[in-house]
Amino acid sequence: MLDKGWISMLVFLATSALVLGFFVWRNRDIWQTKARMRGLGATPRERTAGGGLGKILLARLPDMGTPLLPTTEEQRGRLRQRLIEAGIYDRHALALLLGVKMLLMAAPLVLSGALGLTGMLSPIRAVFAGILGIGLGMIGPGLWLDYRKNARQTGLRRAMPDALDMLVLCVEGGLSLTGAMQRVTAELKSAHPLLGAEMDLVQREMMLGVSVGEGLQKMAARTDLEELRNLASIIVQSERFGTSVVKALRIHADTLRQQRQQRAEEMAQKAAVKILFPTLLCIFPAIFIVILGPAAFQILTVFSRMK
User: Fold this and answer.
1) What's the DSSP call for residue 282?
2) Which residues span the domain enclosing 107?
């Protein structure tokens, strides 16, 4: 007879297998269609290309993520927008992200099942480990996207005041706004590569006939920065009404620099609170041991003499 732990583990594995099987059955037509389309467009060398387990796994990641692909175009659009805001512009990024999520969900399930069947973990612990691993696999890629987006926005915020100062200097020196954008883009590639790459995309869009304001609006949509939206609205209004853009850009640059200084001061004020917990957990116990240690030995000596 099986005990309750083994029964719960077998129920967990069977339920997980049924859920995965349902996703595979539900999306079998999509898989077959995509496989036929890749087969029609691939050359014979691409079809027979090997290259090890890593390359095979990387090639299969889009297929693995197909069960997790949203059914509505609105949800797919939101996922693509999150990838774009994180700086990932590859057209296969959505399928690869979902494939990684599926892999991170399936790997802990297989690993916990193997550890439970071999006896290295008890059945109950294996079930909990599998559930925890699946949960981490579900939320892990989303947390990584949010972290990448926040880091990217921080770098762009730090670079924008310098870019605006250079833009003001170029416009005041007699260059047009388009020429100033070209010069600033070339200069920023070495000082601030992240902002330089984004402005290079704006420059390419301008070559296709897009105005400076519209290009900056698209850049603001890609980065989800309120500062860029304000800058784009300033330039769009100057292009629409024919007003001077130099004074508005200088005021906006001063505002961004003040905001950057305020954020630095805010982080400095938070540091005093954040350092309190490591101090309590790491430094105070050592101080108590040094101060109370000799007294504890003396108390133990006194009690031993009383006996």
Assistant:
1) I
2) 4-150
